[in-house]
Amino acid sequence: MENKYRVLDKVAQQDDEEFMDIVEDKRCCSDFSFAFRTFSPPPYKGAPACSTAELNRAVLESQYLRYEIKEVAVETGSSVEEVRDEVCRILREMSQNLQLRFIRLMAFTARKVFKRIFSAIYVNMEGVNALQQAAQESPVILMPNHRSYVDFLVISYILFSYDIPLPVIAAGIPLAGMKIVGEILRRSGAFFIRRAIRSDKLYWAVLSEYVRTIVRSGFAPLEFFVEGLRSRTLKSLPPKLGMMHMILEPFLKGEVFDVTLVPISISYDRVLEESLLAHELLGVPKPRESTTGLLKASKVLRENYGCMNVNFGRPLSVRQLCEGKLNRSQYNLIPRDLPQKPNAETEACESWLAHMIVRIQEEGTLTSPWSLMACVLLQVPTAALTEEGLLFHQLTEQTLWLRKLALDFGAHLSWPEKLSDSEVMSSTLALHRSVVYRKAGRVYLVRGDEPERKHPISPEEDMMRTAVAFLMLVSYRNQCLHVFVRPALLALAMSITKSTQRDELLTCFCFLQELFSNEFIFIPGRSSQDFDEACSLLKKCKAVHVSLWDVTVSDTGLAVLSFLQELLKPFIDSYQLMFRFLCEERDCVFTEKEFLLAVRTLAAKLIISGELHTYEALSSDVQKNVLSALRRLGAVTRIKTSENNEYKVNKSAVRRTGDMLAGRIPPQVVQAVPDARL
Amino acid sequence: MASNRNSSRHQTARHRLSVIAGHLQRPADSNAAVLAVECKAQEIRPTVKTGDRSEGRTVPRRRQEIMKWNGWGYSDSRFLFNKKGQAEFTGRRYRLSGMIIPNLKDWFEGTFGANLQHKTPATPILNSSAVQRPTLNEVFVEELKSTGIPFSYEAEDRVFRSHGHCLHEIFALREGKFGRLPDMVIWPNCHNDVVKIVELACKHNVCLIPYGGGTSVSSALECPPEETRSIVSLDTSQMNRILWIDEKNLTAHVESGIVGQDLERLLNESGYCTGHEPDSMEFSSLGGWVATRASGMKKNIYGNIEDLVVHIKMVTPRGVIEKSCQGPRMSMGPDIHHFILGSEGTLGVVTEVTMKIRPMPEYQKYGSVVFPSFEQGVACLREVARQRCAPASIRLMDNEQFKFGHALKPQVSSIFTSFLDGLKTFYITKFKGFDPNRLCVATLLFEGDRERVLQHEKQVYDIAAKFGGLAAGEDNGQRGYMLTFVIAYLRDFGMDYYVIGESFETSVPWDRVLDICRNVKARIIRECKDKGVQFPPLSTCRVTQMYDAGACVYFYFAFNYRGLSDPVHVYEQVERAAREEILANGGSLSHHHGVGKLRKEWMRETVSNVGVGMLKSVKDYVDPNNIFGNRNLL
């Protein structure tokens, strides 16, 4: 067990690592000559490279697909040829067509764009070198976090610059729909996956065989986002396990000796899509990905987005990580070409692995000054922030205090060293003028433009003007939540239980982890280690005394603890609000849509009336998370109907959960049903 | 007793004489037609015809007379670097004997990072005083004396019977270290002697460990250290007669102690053979084959041991077990032979076996095929198996093993031959574009009447051609087989220079052959690195046997242990990891080496709880007092 968790520590030790600015680095030569540089990655030792056509043929002719085609033909009553044609269609729609000249084209354009919008792109060279080494040994899976559309462009760009085999990238199907751009992406190595494919047996079969074939052949790294989609909240998302299973299967079945996972942490000073995301969370639908949309969006290219950090994690050997956790002989008795459902042990291991990757991604991200400032700003009452503003020097003081706390908790900061603290603060505020502005020594939250209308605007509309900026602020706070979340949960447990007893606190801590496991990433089965970690971190910053049986607040610890409790308060308030709503609602059955709408209306009402202080309850993300949490705890069940998923509420269970969260009744650790959705 | 010793001394003297005579009489035309037997040691025929019944038998009661006590094989045969620093194989028994092997030094140094200056010589002489005093069961010994069966408790005799040829066993011997030894060695002469011995052992609660050829590589001969009873090694080597040959049914009834080379030679004299040729056949015995489910190189024609036996007689603590007839196949419940086959000496002593025999083949021919890659080689073997046209033997060596085999090429006498070799190499690597670091070679042995062999050969080469294979001559093929007979000598040689190694095997379905080869080799390399081995190991494999549904894969693994404080422990850890890797990749625990004590920790997971229970209940019934207490298997 020990050595697996050391993985996390390793990342934490990268402190004094050299980061290099790749944009700066290349300015010496022209974009053109950069794009036409000789690209000669060292070859993969396992097998010679294979062309796209060969790859597709191998997939099509695989024993596995032949079997599945027959199955589907029998099930649907169509002929084998028809199903086979369908498979060909799916494969055509899906498959990448990586061509070096398109990479060159991309590199040329990307470089122009990057130079314009980013002041720097920092990459850790040690990670790049390790990756180059690893890519020769065994199939490599690149696993970046997903915060922006720019993510995968940047990674391909970096790999191209450093002579590492170019990745094939799992992308969402909407991108393929874009005229020209879709084709360019395809030729730059993207392959496209439809959404919600669990039930489509044939599609699933083609995709999984396609992915496995890529892993088996090993000549190109496979890149995919284990979080499944772009995080709208800039918070890490619980990993999706379907793809994880596909890439692990060749190892589990012994078809490759090992698979190397490379977690990549990308952090942005400022995210290109920031306001788009906030609007989406407030229920404004995401614009369809289209080429014209992209052209329209070119105005974002006129702004500055600060720095971008790409931190390549240490390559992880799946073989080493899974040692002793998996029985690979489970595949001995059935031909490996036939579909076989992974057993519970395998699923648990895959889930553990995926969660761990996300945690490593989190630990590898750099925390920006702005993210810390967002934490501070969000602890100021919103009304005050929009009306009176916060004194700049107060903001500075508190941000610096928080910086120290974050460092104590082991965060990696991207705090510019050459500048004075006040310069850093000022430049950060300037960079984020879309969210805050500074006037006469005070900092204010930006409010949306007043709509030009005849009649006075309604209180709802007025509130929405603040909500956008508020949620943007929330997103930036989310970027660094992972640094604080474990100690914060302990602080919360202390305030909920009003107890100092260790085991009582642990129980409450576990309950909170369970409840918030959609909000924050916790590695399954590690609660007690997380608890110990929280204790030691709080002890380190001298906030608590820890003994064998007790955890008590120290004299100086109140500030830290109340800050941490306050940090999570928006979540508690939002959850309680929704619990209350569910208990008071007459109807016990509703669809997700109905729920989201009703909660949004209620939250808006309460915010206007001043009863609710956080705008976060308006975020559809939090709302959905509440629903999943309750489902996991068994307080809400999903009933499948023909069209929509309907949910049935068990009011007493919801009330009980609310009471536990409020400390009215002692929390019990609910034995949650393992989340088997892949 | 005294007369007994006397006669044994007499025998010894006579044998020595015959050895010397044999040396002098070595056939002059050693370059004559290529024959399979030439790979093995030359028999040494006694010239003095006497009435002695051990005439023509290889193994004397006192093994020390002709064999090494702390290494493999004959005392006179070993690899060494001569004064000029060239590798040489001594003795006169083998085709390679007395020859200079010019490439071996470079290969050895290059592969292992070994150095002629860094030597680890073995303890030269067996120090009897380091041997534990025997624990004797006095009453048993008394009664045994009255039967007249020869026995001994001399240190040398006991040491010889205390081990097989696992690395750790030989390593300890070379360092002059001895663990628990048998307290006594008995040489029964016939089935009835064995019956008497087993009866006495039961009566006096003595632990019996049957000993055949001593070639075990599964720790099967190791005495359990926890055994407190007197341990008696029951050496069957003197039960080595062919009792009768039935030419109508083509069977022979043979005592179990006969070693492979004697059995084959004696049958050959009558124009027959069994065709059972395990790589250890110079020293391993018929009883041992039965007890471990042995497999022979030419099983494609003749079958494995379980296909060859018609009737088995075994003495157990409950009495003698045998069938009442010699029907070629029976449906009478589970075949009781299968309790005996693979019982590894835990149930009793096999004393007599009726075996199928065949007329000697008219014609034999070696061959070899070079493939551009191992993958293509395996695909070709798969196709040969699909068409069921396997030659007597077909083996596919990987690139490392191909190079290994190449390093064993003896010095060629003529410039012309070396020129031809160069031309061949040029043709394959330059003209055909084979990558010398990827290509691999299959060695073939065809057997039968001349016409059919040639026809068969063509068929196989045609298949090979479809997979990019090029015929590469008889010589390469023969050298491949030679490697298996001298590999154990080579291990001793390596151990003189800090290199330790071992082989192990498995059987696996066809679709997993490539994966298991790749993964096990890679695992070995990784484990060595993790365990602090300073030099990259030799990790190589070959596909040695094929079946309809799968193949047998054989791994060699060796490394230079300079800088390690406990090399044997490291070695064992790596081998253990390799075995786990095999099991995880769908390979079996063993194809023909057996389980012994080395692999018994995995028995339960490989045969299930019920399976272990079944075996246990047989053991409990047959041998309730654990007289056959070698603790193998379960």
From TrEMBL, chain A:
Major site of localization recorded for this protein: membrane
Superkingdom as given in the UniProt entry: Eukaryota
Pathway field: Phospholipid metabolism
Family to which the UniProt record says this protein belongs: Belongs to the GPAT/DAPAT family.
Record bears the keyword Flavoprotein: no
Localization of this protein: Membrane
Phospholipid/glycerol acyltransferase domain sequence ranges: 140-269
Keywords: Acyltransferase, Membrane, Transferase
Keyword Membrane found: yes
SMART domains: PlsC
Protein name: Phospholipid/glycerol acyltransferase domain-containing protein
Automatic annotation (TrEMBL), chain B:
Subcellular location per the Swiss-Prot or TrEMBL entry: Peroxisome
Full protein name: Alkylglycerone-phosphate synthase
Keyword Repeat in record: no
Keyword Lipid metabolism: yes
PANTHER family, alphabetized: ALKYLDIHYDROXYACETONEPHOSPHATE SYNTHASE, PEROXISOMAL (PTHR46568:SF1)
SUPFAM superfamilies: FAD-binding/transporter-associated domain-like, FAD-linked oxidases, C-terminal domain
Enzyme class, spelled out: transferase
EC number: 2.5.1.26
Subunit and partners: Homodimer.
Known function: Catalyzes the exchange of an acyl for a long-chain alkyl group and the formation of the ether bond in the biosynthesis of ether phospholipids.
InterPro entries tied to this protein: Alkyl-DHAP_Synthase, FAD-bd_oxidored_4_C, FAD-bd_PCMH, FAD-bd_PCMH-like_sf, FAD-bd_PCMH_sub1, FAD-bd_PCMH_sub2, FAD-linked_Oxase-like_C, Oxid_FAD_bind_N
Requisite cofactors: FAD
Reactions the enzyme catalyzes: a long chain fatty alcohol + a 1-acylglycerone 3-phosphate = a 1-O-alkylglycerone 3-phosphate + a long-chain fatty acid + H(+)
A Pfam family it matches: FAD-oxidase_C
